[in-house]
Fold:
Amino acid sequence: MDEGYTLKTIARIHSDFPTKFGIPRQSGLVEQLLSTIVFEPEYRVPAALRGLEGFSHLWLIWQFSEAVRGSWRPTVRPPRLGGNTRMGVFATRSPFRPNALGLSCVKLEGITQDAALGPVLTVAGADLMDGTPIFDLKPYLPYTDSRPGAAGGFAQPARAYALEVEFPERWLARVPQPLRAPLTAVLAQDPRPSYQADPDRVYGFFFAGLEVKFTVQQGLLTVCGVAPAASNAPSLQTLL
Structure:
């Protein structure tokens, strides 16, 4: 049996997150987020997507490209448990695992044909950083992939977790209209590391070319700044 197998990057996703901070911790938590999937030149073949338009959702198999390392540990500290409790790596979706593979379910919003890029997929609810390599995509099959009575283990309580968001008009006005709902939903998911709870600390992250700053106190997240990202900040890749 082969000890290893080389995966080919078939596509890359392009999202509003140039860095890891701020990305929802699971797919589908923020359905308002739109991303595009652009295939690598070898796979820009319309016939390879024949029939895909009949499916509402897709599974993405991708690489935690910022978490690739040569070693692994049997336990990790899930963020939603405060960052102090260790669980088995195979009982979590941590990026720090023997093979840095991610699995996400996204909604297929549309397929367009670009003269230069070939078929381009628009998807909603992705939890991937801009430029993340995708190794495969498969249709979501509701009759077999959905298990309504499945147990969620220690992760179940995180399902209902959310912050109240106060977004003053002076800052909201600096956000383009189509991005206001997605950004507010991202903030409600609490981008902070779970082990940080300093009410006086100002946090910040990059989103769609903006730097967004906020504080959190007693379950209320208050936006305290929105400005264009500095020229030396991580930038989005412009493809379309």
Remarks:
- Residues 177-188 form the longest helix (12 residues).
- The domain at 158-228 is CATH 3.30.2310.20 (YaeB-like fold).
- Helices lie at 142-145, 169-172, 177-188.
- Residues 63 and 101 are 5 Å apart (CA to CA).
